[in-house]
Amino acid sequence: MSGAENYVISGPDLLNLTTEIFVKAGLGREDAGIAAGSLVEANLRGTDSHGVIRVENYIKRLKHGGAAANVKCRLVSATPATIVLDAENGLGAVASRQVCGLVRDKALKNNLAFGVVRNSNHFGAASMWALLLAGDDLISFVGSNVHRLMPAPGGKGAAIGNNPFALAVPAGRYEPMCLDMACSVVAQGNVLKYRHDRRQMPEGWFVDSEGEPTTDPFEALMVLPFGGHKGFGIAVIVEMLSALLAGGAFADNIGSQYDDLVNPNRLSHFFGAMRIDAFRDLGEFKSDVDEFIDKLKAVPKKAGVAEIFYPGEIEAARKKANLKSGIKLPRSIVEELSEIAAELKVEKTMIAPLTARPV
Hints:
- The protein has helices at 11-24, 29-44, 55-64, 92-110, 126-134, 190-197, 229-246, 282-298, 313-325, 331-343, 348-351, and strands at residues 6-9, 74-79, 82-86, 112-120, 138-144, 150-151, 158-160, 165-169, 177-181, 206-207, 213-214, 222-223, 267-275, 327-330.
- It is an alpha+beta fold.
- The protein folds into two domains: 1-64 and 326-359, Malate/L-lactate/L-sulpholactate dehydrogenase, four-helix barrel (Hypothetical Oxidoreductase Yiak, Chain: A, domain 1, Orthogonal Bundle), CATH 1.10.1530.10; 71-184 and 225-297, Ribosomal Protein S8, Chain: A, domain 1.
- The strands form four sheets. The chain has a seven-stranded mixed beta sheet with strand order 2-3-4-13-5-8-9, with helices on both faces. A three-stranded antiparallel beta sheet has the order 11-10-12, with no helix packed on it. Strands 1-14 form a two-stranded antiparallel sheet.
- Strand 10 and strand 11 form a beta hairpin.
- It starts with 5 loop residues before the first strand and ends in an 8-residue tail after the last helix.
């Protein structure tokens, strides 16, 4: 491997390699493609904290039994507008892909629908499922709980997950709006990037085991909620809509994704959708969304600011650019993927594109 700090790989090549890694780890090819697709999509959109940097953890969990391969979601209950599934400890992306399809069908038939999944694993970037569920005719709202990694205001120990959520709204001339955020100052996955790069983190992101601020990614134990009580409060509500509504695990009954590779995470997710034309004409709605975005972009800007962006616009632009020019991966991630692929005996011809384009 050359001394380059970064490498560029095409989206299709990265998807093929990651899919093959999951196949060699025991997943069926369809499920492997779903899991790989959710990670590569995050890289395409520039959300690298939820991209292929997660492959190592997913593979370790499959290897040690913390996550199960080739399981099917079990139907717990259903009505014309609701559904409850048990993921049976399968990968979160696989369960999410299934429930998105079911909730979307129900919403199209009944105008509104809501689904929940329990006993799942990390489902990746929430935007993936919000955009898939919304399509070009629904408004969607999705979210998930995670293991406890955020302190409560005034608390010392971890009280709740940073519980990510996303909403997607289709537009006309513009790419869909998509707000994707966790309830913490930054996504927990950012600590992985800083560990890989062996860099100090900005102040105000994480605290250590004593609840004291730290910039050392190897000492970082808990991520802080954004806005103090505001981020904490939203995280609590996401927990209600996912875990408690699904009858899933919550609080200290949730397993740690990274610190416990043997036992299930037992995460829960929720997926809601509403049919826009049940409220008003779809075309008129999209036209108004475009006009709203136009007005946002027309507001006066501070000196040095070139453009006002709406939620999801930057990520959509990154995806277009990355589909054209390829995905940039740091040397540490390339080495990690190469080692995983070699250990699982993935064909060398599939690994080669990782280092073909150093930058």
